[in-house]
Amino acid sequence: MAASVLYLDTARLGQTSPSALQAQIDFSRLTAEQPSSLYTDRFLADGIEVAPSSWRERFSGLRHWQGIDELKRAIKEVANAPASHEVAVASRSTVLMRLAARAMFRVCRNVLATDMSWPAYQDELASASVRANKHLTIHSCREDIFAGHLSSREIISAIAIAYERHGCNGLFLPLVDNLGVRLPVLQIIRAIEGIRKPRFVIIDGAQALGHLPEIDCHDSCDVFLAGTHKWMRAGSPLGIAVFGRPRSQELLSRCLNPTSRTFDDPLARFACSLSGGAMERYSETVNVAPLFACRAAITDVPEQNGQKSQHWLNQLLSREDVASMAESVGWYTPPLDVDSRTGILLLKPISRQARSVLNDSMRKCFADCGIAVSTYDDATIRMSMPKRRLVASELLQIETTLSKLGNECELKV
After folding, report:
1. Is 316 helix (H, G, I), strand (E, B) or coil?
2. Quick one: how far is CA 211 from the chain centroid?
3. CA-CA to 239 of 20 to 30 Å: which in 11, 117, 226, 311?
């Protein structure tokens, strides 16, 4: 995709950050010039400093790689997790979700989730509940939230009431759902603890890591799940799980141990062998590029809280700019409560006729106009705002595309 494209799509993949891109390029060059080198094992385990000095000069994109243990420390820092917590990595976050769900149903008889969950994660929860012969309760709140019927305080109350009514003792929530709604997770957990303390809490942070200015739920949840390929912009998918709450750390250390037969992920096993300092003699050939891309991407995340807050403000301001402009050309955004808004904006056509006519052609129309977005079958457009504020020419570019879609709809009708 050309560099001039306005990238507003993190639904599945964020736009690769500069350092992550260079790391991937230089690792590819390394494998072309130095395949299976005598120094490769030490480099993977301990970092660039133990490699020949010529590597540091020729493959500068790998300069951030200091070994798997340092990578895990960096992940905890960027996720704002306590240093005492542990980190598990895998090639797919669904693998980590599956194992975390199994651990959850070892100690919970009834887990509460909402219809805000990512469907793949919800399926893993459902499968784990059936396997354990336990219960999964789904509280429906998405429709009311998107209709603007629930304030942040009312969301907290509704979920807490559902938790009490159904006799739940476990909880699964997204920090930000895939359609851009921010849930007041910490306040929900505290409200629930006033009723009956949950025995296990899993938080989905896939759309939060690298997006929200601060993540503050680690001391209140047992597992925090995320990936580095969306808002973290690593380019190569890598699932991560952060855990360390004293009550569940031992259980999770067993369940998320890559040497376990239930942990079927070659990258996780390979990373574990690196961390242990001993490479498996007959290990499966593994794509380790996501590890380097992740570490490099972390360096592109601002360290200063003030800069993170400014990025967050830029996203919210751009969101309001697009929403206001879109309304003038026949589109509207669901009336979310202010506290529920994020850098993700949904747009729908005001005309009900348009909703039945517009379909997958929407994404192509945006692409033809130099904009990358996500679109859904119900004529919904999903835009992820960049960390900088959109300028007037970009707003005009979006407005022109939305108008073009409206004209196309009139012709079809």
Report:
1. helix
2. 9
3. 311
196-238 pLDDT, tens digit each? 999 999 999 999 999 999 999 999 999 999 999 999 999 999 9
Distance, in Å, from the CA atom of 365 to the CA atom of 370, rounded to the nearest integer, reads 9
CA atoms of 148 and 185, how far apart (whole Å) = 18
Distance of CA 230 to the CA centre of its chain: 6
* The two three-digit tokens of residue 396, written as one number: 């005009």
Percentage of the chain beyond pLDDT 70 is: 92
**Which residue is it, tokens 């603007």?**
148
Alpha helix ranges (H) inside 12-151: 18-33, 40-46, 53-58, 68-78, 93-107, 119-132, 142-146
pLDDT at residue number 231: 96
Q: Strands 135-139, 371-372: parallel, antiparallel or unpaired by DSSP?
A: unpaired
Give the type of residue at 223. V
Calpha distance 324→352 (Å, rounded): 20
Q: Which two tokens stand for residue 209?
A: 């890591």
CB atoms within 10 A of CB 410: 13
Token pair, residue 288, equals 């380790």
Q: Which string of DSSP letters, residue by residue, matches 144-182? A: HHHTT---HHHHHHHHHHHHHHTT--EEEEESB-TTSPB
- pLDDT score of 283: 61
Q: Please state, in angstroms and rounded to a whole number, the distance separating the CA atoms of residues 214 and 80.
A: 7
